[in-house]
Design goal:
mainly alpha, two-stranded antiparallel ribbon, two-stranded parallel ribbon, 18 helices, 58% helix, elongated
């Protein structure tokens, strides 16, 4: 059969053609190796559609039973890796229908009445994505729970906080951890919104104009677990906004995860040495025996760029096509499957690495320097009646004086400080306490012990009411 495509069954669309498809074009056109992943969803949608046909007497009860039994067998074949894909199977839809015909003959030809691959494929995609979103919701939720657990365990650890990668003010390590918990909370809330728009049923829209038979689309929605149905057939078959939205959500979520990893990569360097990854999440060098590399974090950071690329690529695909269904839209599956697989794995590895992470408490503490309390000195002057802008300027002079003498800001004497402002008094020494500094930030969202615990309690309360449970 060299160079010739043998027709073993009627193509879903081939009646008006007099020539076989060019084998090379068939290979380009075929998506079975990608979308076969949706075999269960395709069968689920087909079974529901068969029931809807039976409701309007386009299938008999006996034919429906025969079809259901055959679909059970087909699903078992897929589940056990015994399903044989023929070369002519363009996609999972044609493969399942071809196998159905082999098992039950002409009865299978009734299934596609009023249905198009246009509304079939988008229904399958939504069923698959809805299930995948539910898994991701739990995965990200677990990651937040680990962030909270580690924040509680290490509440007493103080460390420098950074802006512009320069030491800024003392903070709790837990405050840094929780900053990412709040990012992830927002990510979960966004994903729930995406799920709402995924969960709108397109089945029953036909190819473009709708379904000419009195198919009960509300019945289909209930059968397949959708919240509502689409209201315009042209929009229904051409809509891939939910794919773009999921890809954007994934891109934004991985950006957050990548920033988290970047922080930990830096904190893991010998220059910082704040943390240490477990051996099972580290790698070595093929040349330098002493190396201990945080590849678990670097891979997540790197794959974030690939996920961003998938999102941008699909948006470019969408912007160039006219309305309704065009074959370009076949590209959505590869983007979705890759993004979901990588994203799930990235969050899982980040979670495992965080659970086993070791924090070097004393090194974090030793990294705190008196200059980081310059703002506290400005606040001290505010309590003495000096306007903040003026106190900021005065403390800047004190910092410059300490630098000129080659000493720490805390080593300036009261008499030296009085040359800058008479408002400095002996009790200025009370500000040189890092625990006091951190615990002065008592307003909601601050880094004090009280407010960090409040954050933890609020996150726990939110998670308790989260709609998706393990």
């Amino acid at each position: 059969m060299d160079g010739e495509l043998k027709r073993t069954y009627q193509k879903l669309w081939g009646g008006r053609f007099t020539e076989d498809v060019d084998p090379d074009f068939h290979n380009l056109n075929s998506s079975i190796n990608i979308d076969k992943r949706m075999y269960a969803e395709d069968i689920q949608g087909s079974v529901a559609y068969a029931r809807a046909l039976c409701k309007i007497n386009l299938l008999s009860e006996k034919e429906l039973q025969i079809m259901n039994a055959a679909f059970n067998q087909i699903k078992d074949e897929w589940d056990s890796n015994k399903f044989i894909i023929n070369h002519e199977d363009e996609d999972v839809h044609s493969a399942n229908e071809r196998r159905l015909s082999e098992l039950i003959g002409d009865v299978a030809k009734k299934l596609h009445t009023g249905r198009s691959r246009n509304d079939q494929t988008i229904t399958d995609t939504k069923l698959w994505l809805r299930k995948s979103i539910d898994r991701l919701l739990l995965r990200v939720k677990n990651f937040i729970e680990i962030l909270i657990i580690r924040a509680e365990q290490d509440m007493d650890v103080l460390m420098p906080g950074y802006t512009h990668m320069q030491r800024a003010q003392p903070i709790r390590w837990s405050q840094w951890l929780l900053s990412y918990a709040w990012y992830m909370k927002q990510d979960l809330e966004r994903l729930l919104e995406v799920r709402k728009r995924v969960n709108i049923l397109p089945l029953g829209s036909g190819a473009i104009a709708g379904n000419p038979f009195p198919i009960d689309r509300q019945f289909l929605a209930i059968e397949l677990g959708f919240d509502e149905i689409t209201q315009n057939s042209m929009h229904a078959v051409g809509d891939r906004d939910f794919v773009a939205e999921f890809l954007f959500w994934s891109s934004l979520s991985t950006v957050h995860l990548s920033r988290f990893c970047e922080d930990l990569i830096m904190y893991n360097t010998q220059e910082f040495n704040f943390i240490k990854f477990a051996d099972k999440y580290s790698t070595g060098s093929s040349l330098m025996p002493q190396k201990r590399n945080p590849d678990c974090m670097e891979l997540i950071r790197g794959k974030t760029g690939t996920i961003l690329g998938k999102c941008i690529g699909f948006m470019i695909t969408l912007k160039g096509i006219p309305s309704t269904y065009n074959k370009d839209l076949q590209e959505d599956k590869e983007m979705l499957f890759y993004t979901y697989d990588m994203l799930y794995q990235m969050f899982y590895i980040a979670e495992k690495a965080l659970v086993t992470l070791q924090i070097n408490r004393e090194i974090c503490k030793d990294a705190l320097t008196p200059n980081m309390l310059a703002t506290d000195m400005a606040y001290y002057l505010v309590t003495k009646g000096v306007p903040f802008r003026e106190s900021h300027h005065l403390v800047g002079k004190a910092v410059a004086l300490a630098e000129s003498k080659g000493i720490s800001l805390s080593d300036l004497t009261v008499s030296q400080l009085k040359t800058i402002s008479e408002r400095f008094e002996d009790n200025v020494s009370c500000i040189w306490n890092f625990n006091f500094s951190v615990d002065q930030y008592q307003t909601t969202g601050g880094t004090s012990l009280k407010t960090v615990q409040q954050q933890i309690n609020n996150l726990k309360f939110w998670l308790h009411d989260f709609p998706f449970k393990k």
